[in-house]
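Interim report, section 4.2 (structural modelling).
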Amino acid sequence: MKKLLIILGFAVFAVGCGENTTESNDDQKSEEKVEEAKAPWKIEDDTKTIESTCLAMLEAFSTPKGEKPDWARLNNLCSDSAIFNSVYADGGGEMHQYTLAEYEEEEGSWYDANDVLEEQLGITIDRFHNVANVFQAFKLTYDDHKGEAGTDQGVLFYQMAFVGDRWFITNLMWQSETGDSKVAEFVN
Amino acid sequence: MKNLIIITLLFAATSVQAVDLDSLYKDDVSSIEKLCDAMLQAFSGKASEQKDWTRFENLFLTLSQQINVAGGDEPYVNVESMAAFMEEEKPWYDKTDFSEWAIKYTIREFGNMASVIQTFGYEYNTPSDDDAAIGAGFTAFQLIYLEERWWIVSLIWEGETEKNKIAEQYMK
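Predicted structure of the assembly:
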């Protein structure tokens, strides 16, 4: 029985070799793809596409309580001059503007003190050549394990530029859902 | 006491100017499309005419940035505050017959925010430099509604080239 299997195995190998080489190249390519999929994540991967850049933004803020957001990863996503604009509907409206460093200083401790999970609910992209405008619906789940926990949904507007071989976030603006504005229509 | 009076007068002068600007350009900031149109209109005009830089400035928040992606297939980014943009570009606009107009708007609103794609056409002639051109471009605006008016928070734009044409969905 063992001998038969060896013969069959050899026959299959021989038939495979007799066919055109395209198939074996395809096999090799698919093996390479599997290897690529297994390869460890690299920071360069974040900025390859518009979608990966915007997803990386949410992932970098998603950390368990006691861990800091990945500020180096966030810094890599943004141009040096990027401004973070946080908009509130209170009263006639209110907006806070930060650089990323200022945002870390002002808001970093809140992320450190909470389990934070930011998820994308939908994304809409307008692009012309090296410029992109992105509309990302998100859901935030947080828990400080001291009685403050909840969820929030909202929308992030990104302005982005493709320079060199990667995308940069040049400006970011976000607001949470209100009674009048729901993210539902932007979920896809 | 003298200091107090100076401060009071300064505050009063600032308030009067603010009230004047608010009423003078009230229509510009009353809707998303009017705001974005006003930006194009403010520096359109004959070389012999004074461009309306006060009207232009009134459209923006103090920290607003304008970001231009240039260079075609070897792109680079030019980021400027609006104050720097005006200081740098004013001499050129003031010696140029310049006309810019909106072609199409794609607008998405959420809460107090608006995201706007504006495609635009332009035509200019600078006789002193023997330079003239006609073309189109793509601008993405981020806007905010605060204090009962619209403001430009940020804009990023790129011009169309022979090789890189704007998709029809943004033009028609």
